[in-house]
Amino acid sequence: MDCVGADSEMVMDIGSTYDRTMSVTIVLFYTFVTLFMFLSYNPKPRKIVESIRSFLLQLLQHDNGAAGSHPPASIATATPCDADRLPKAVRSIWDIPGPRRLPLIGTKWRYFTGRQRYAKVHEAFVELHRRYGPIVLDVDTVPIVNLFDRADMERVLKYPSRYPFRPPTEIVEVYRSSRPDRFGVTNLINAQGDKWHELRLKLTSGITSRRILQSFIPSVNEICDDFVDLVRRLRSEDGTVCNFQDIANSVGLEIICCLVLGRRMGYLTTNRRNEKFMRLAEAVKESFVYISQSYYGFKLWKYVPTRLYRNFVRCEEIIYDTIAEIVYEALEEEQLNCPDNDVKHIFISILQTEGLDTKEKISGIIDLITSAIETLSNTLSFLLHNLSQSVEHQRAIAQEFSHCVPTVTNDDLVNARFTKACIQESYRISPTTPCLARILEEDFQLSGYHLQAGTLVLCHTRIACQSEDNFQQADRFLPHRWLEQRDENDNVVNKRLEPGAGIVLPFGIGRRMCPGQKIVDIELTLLVAKIFQNFEIEYRSPLDTQFQFLLAPRTPIEIRFRDRT
Ligand code: HEM
After folding, report:
1. Ligand 1 lined by 506 (C-beta under 6 Å)
2. Total domain count for the chain?
3. What is the DSSP letter of 180?
């Protein structure tokens, strides 16, 4: 019996030693990951040390319940001016209200169950804002500050930064560093500092050039006409087109390939809408889903190839293989035809740029093409949904372009005030990007809290755009709010801007903003012009949204296209 007792004591000893070792290992591991995250995020070493110290101190205190540590509601909703009047109690990042933080896992538990799962993360943020106010703390491997107040967001996003810091998409970094045969050290979307600046200049000067884009308008006209013909061909007897996203993806790909590679791919006119292309569109969509999932949970994919990671890799390889094939085909054709050296296509200019290695150039071209597919498809789907609610709006757009047959010119686009107001209103009420991320480069006082440089903040522009504080009748699609009042000589008499106008930022802001904005302006306006010149539309399916890194329609879209009479 004694022996058995001694044995069990020994087992307990071994057990508790094992437990201790495990705990120490977990803490060390977590500290290491935290350190790594801070180091990779924070541009200023002294600030890094301060941030880590305060984060670790907070962990050691085991956070006795976020609710208990919240400042009173009146302080939580205080304005920066109020906070300035409270110099004695400087409130730090850890005083910011937010969901209960658990040791080691922070607030990650929120995403494991129920409604708050990642597909509905955008709705979870609405709830967070309602519950905790204008600034809310989430804790993942690092603290994340959620901003909902317009003034706070404007201060962060309008900070005059030379090289704005946006947190990298880690799963992309991990995968790309595992394929040094294909990718350079970083890419435009994830790079920071000087390297980002170099990539930005060398990869995007073609797609942002006003001259190049204006000369591209006739080609976009042709592509949009083909799109209208495709809609006609695909309509069922009652005029319904099922899986509208598929053709929206095709038109996005056709336009970006035409611009960047200088050639028509035939995705709308021929049977090149083949299996390979469908797989590409599916892979782009899926990869966004995996990216969004990679943000939540324990992120085991960083250390072992989990199913999520393997699926992501599968999609990335399909995207790379398919687009690289298109690029190399175009390159071969270009070399065969030996075109005039003055009129280089954008991709040839990129390939001939000095200072970047070939992998960076090829993967940069692939990134530009990939970025243009799903974003356009979602934006167009949301815009048509908003316009389908009003026959008058559709008629007004048709009217605006009634004189532009068969071709819409640059002047027609510039003068299409009502159509542009509809697009802007759709960006406000149903954006594809619900928030913008930044890493603070200086210390900031936001909503009365002191945030150190290096802090990761999410600016929830979607929620601000849907708030009555910023827009009257914020839940209604009212394009007229964007129209200036004019007199009989067309002079502006009243600007009528709403307080939140500056926070409608579908493409971001500052030097880091989307380089595809001007392309999208042209393609979206032209698509809408051609659609309503030809059809009256009606949404046949409900439109629910889900978060897939971008906001996307949750179910296949069915739209009825009736010929305009
Ligand atoms: C409706 C369509 C689109 C939307 C809503 C959209 C939105 C955005 C947003 C919000 C950002 C982040 C900006 C910031 O942090 O301030 C971004 C970045 C970016 N977008 Fe777009 N985008 C669209 C289309 C495109 C197209 C057509 C291209 C390529 C031709 C493109 C390429 C990129 C790239 C390369 C970046 C990273 C820029 C950088 O970090 O310097 N996007 N986009």
Report:
1. yes
2. 1
3. T
